[in-house]
Amino acid sequence: MILPQLVTGIVWIILLLVMPISSFTPLSDLMGGTNVAPLAIIPAVIILVLCWLPVFFKGGRKLPYHFKPLLLFFLVGGLSTLLVSFRNVPTFQGFSMNRSIIETIITLAMGVGFYLVTIFMVKGEKELRSTIRWISIAGTIVIAISLLQVGTWSIFQRYPEWMHSLNRFLSSSRKLYEHRASGLAFEPSWLAHQLNILFIPLWLGLSISGQSVFKKKLFNNIQIEGLLLVLGIFTLFLTLSRVGWLTLFLLITYLVFRFANIWINKMTQSFRSDSTIGRGKQRLLQVAIWVGLLVGLLVLVFVAGVIMTRVEPRMADFFDIDRLRERGFLDWAAQLSLAERFMYWAAAYGVFQMFPIIGAGFGIPGFFFLHTVPDFGSQLLDINEIILTKFYLPNAKNLWARLLSETGIIGFALFVSWLVIHWRNANDLDKSTALGLFKAMGLFGKLVVLAMIIEGFSLDSFGLPYYWIALGLIAASWLIWSQDPVNAGANVEVTNANNARA
Fold first, then answer.
1. Helix ranges, 51-179 (H)
2. For the purposes of burial, counting CB atoms within 10 Å of the CB of 275, is it exposed (0-12), middle (13-18) or buried (19 or more)?
C-alpha cells in the first residue's frame, strides 16, 4: 500500500508542525520514560513505511551518496556492539545492557528516518519552498508559546494550571521554568538547540539573501523571515542557555568575517587598479582592517559579557579570574555549574581511551562511568547523586565524546565525513550561479554545520529531529540544484522527471 500523494503531503506537513515537540509525554511513557521522544516520529514512520519503502524496493528511488558514510558509521558501531559479549563490561545499578543498546539503536534509526524522509519529500523547488514555509510556521508557534511562558511568569510570578496541564502533556519533563523559555521542548537548552540548529540559520540564510517563501510582506515592506529572525534571536536569549548564546555569537562572528572578507577583496581589487598605491601599502592596509575587525569583536564580546552578567547571574562567575587562578580550572568550572558536565565528557573520553579503534559499542560507555569519571567528580553533588541515589545511566552529554566512546576513531571519522559532505554541498550552492533560493540554502547549510559543532558540546542524542531535517534539507537542495545548476532557483516549475533522484 502506497499513500496517495495528497495524503503524504498532509502527513509531511503534520511532521513539520509537531517537530518542535521533542519529548511527547505519552510517547515517552510508552518508550519506558526516555527523554527523547519526538512526536514527529509518528508521521515519519507513516511516510517511511507506506511511501518511501515501497518506492525504494521497487527501484523507484536510490539512496543518495550522502548516506554512504552514515551507513558505514552504523556498521562500525554495530560491529563494536556485537563484540560486547567478549568484553568485561561492568554492571551499573542493575541497568539492562541490552535495553541500553536497543534504545541507542532506536534513537539512531529515528534520526536516520527523519533524514531520509526529508530528502524523499523535498523533490523540487516547489516542495522545498513549501517545506521551508511550514517550518517557519512551526517556528512561529514555538516563538509565540515561548513569549507567552516568559511573559506570564514576568507578570504573575507563576503559571496558571492550564499551562502546567498542557506542558505535562507535551513535555515529559512536566516542568515549566522560572524566567526561562522552553517552548515545546524538553527544557530551555533543547529549545536553544532547535533554534540554533534549524530555525535561526534558515531565517538568517533567507534574510541575508533577500529571499522569501511567503508571497506577501508585512505592511508591504517587512520580510516575514526577517521578523521571525529577530523574534527567534530574542527567544533564544530568553532560554538563558549559555551554550545557545555562544553558538549564536559564533554564527554572527562567521557572518561578520564572511562579509568583511568580501568587502576587503573588493577593496583590494580597486587598489590594484590604482597605480599610486604600492603592494606593500595594500597589504599593510589589509592587515590594519583585519586587526581593527578583531579589536571590534573583542570589544563586542566584553560588552556582551557585561550585559549577560546582569541578566544571567551564572555568567558573572564566568569572569571570576581570581578563582580560576587561585583554585584551578575545575573549581572555577564547578562555580559555573559546568564541572559536572566536564566530568561526563571526561568519563566518555576515558572509555574512548580503553577502546580507541571502534569504541565500546552503542549504549555501552555509561556502564564504565565509575571506572572512568575523574576523582574530582566525588566533590560534586550531581555526580554523587548519580552514583549513590539516582537510578540513571550516565551519558556523555557531548555528541563528539559520545561518538568517540561508542564508535571509536573510525566511527567518529565517518560521522564527521558525513558532515563534511554537507558542508561541501552547501559551499557548492553558496558559490554557484544559481539564483535566489539555492544560494540562500547554501548559506543556511554552512550555518547549520557550524551550529552543530558548538551545540554538539551540549547535547548528545541521535533522536532529536532538528539537525537531521536541517541536514536533509541541505542534501535535498544540492540534489535538486545538481540536476540543473544553471536554471536552479529561477522560480520556474521543476518537473519530477528532471529531478528524479533519491
1. 53-57, 67-82, 97-121, 125-156, 161-170
2. exposed
Residue 334, pLDDT score: 54
Backbone angles phi, psi at 462, to 5 degrees: -85, -15
Residue 209 C-beta-side C-alpha neighbours within 13 Å: 24
* Side chain identity, residue 428: D
Distance from C-alpha of 297 to C-alpha of 292, rounded to nearest angstrom: 9
pLDDT in tens, 103-143: 999 999 999 999 999 999 999 999 999 999 999 999 999 99
- CA dihedral for 344, 113, 479, 412, sign (positive or negative): positive
DSSP label of 291: H
DSSP secondary structure of 168-210? HHH-TT----TT---TTSSSHHHHHHHIIIIIHHHHHHHHHHT
DSSP state at residue 49 = I
How much is the pLDDT for 303? 72
Long-range contacts of 398-403 (CB under 8 A, 24+ apart): 398/341, 398/344, 398/345, 398/348, 398/456, 398/457, 398/458, 398/460, 399/455, 399/456, 399/457, 399/459, 399/460, 400/456, 400/457, 401/344, 401/345, 401/348, 401/349, 401/352, 401/460, 402/348, 402/365, 402/460
364-383 burial, b at 16+ Cβ within 10 Å, e below that, comes to bbbbbbeebbbebbeebebb
Q: Grid coordinates representing 374?
A: 575523574
Q: In the chain, where are the structural domains located?
A: 5-240+396-483, 255-311
Cβ atoms of 476 and 128 within 8 Å: the answer is: yes
Cα angle vertex 47, ends 1, 421, to 5°? 130
Interacting residues of 166 by C-beta distance below 8 A, sequence separation 6+:
none
- If one counts every other C-beta atom within 10 angstroms of the C-beta of residue 305, the result is 13
pLDDT of the residue at 491: 46
pLDDT band at 326 (very low <50, low <70, confident <90, very high): low
Residue 351 parent element (H or E): helix 339-354
DSSP secondary structure of 383-426: HHHHHHT-------SSHHHHHHHHHHHHHHHHHHHHHHHHHHHH
| Closest to 35 in 3D by CA, of 194, 199, 187, 242 | 187
Position 499 scores a pLDDT of 36
The 10s digit of each residue's pLDDT in 436-472 is: 899 999 999 999 999 999 999 888 889 899 999 999 9
**Residue 282, CB half-sphere, CA atoms under 13 Å: how many?**
16
| DSSP 3-state of 37 | strand
Question: DSSP letter at 254?
Answer: H
Q: What is the pLDDT of residue 335?
A: 55
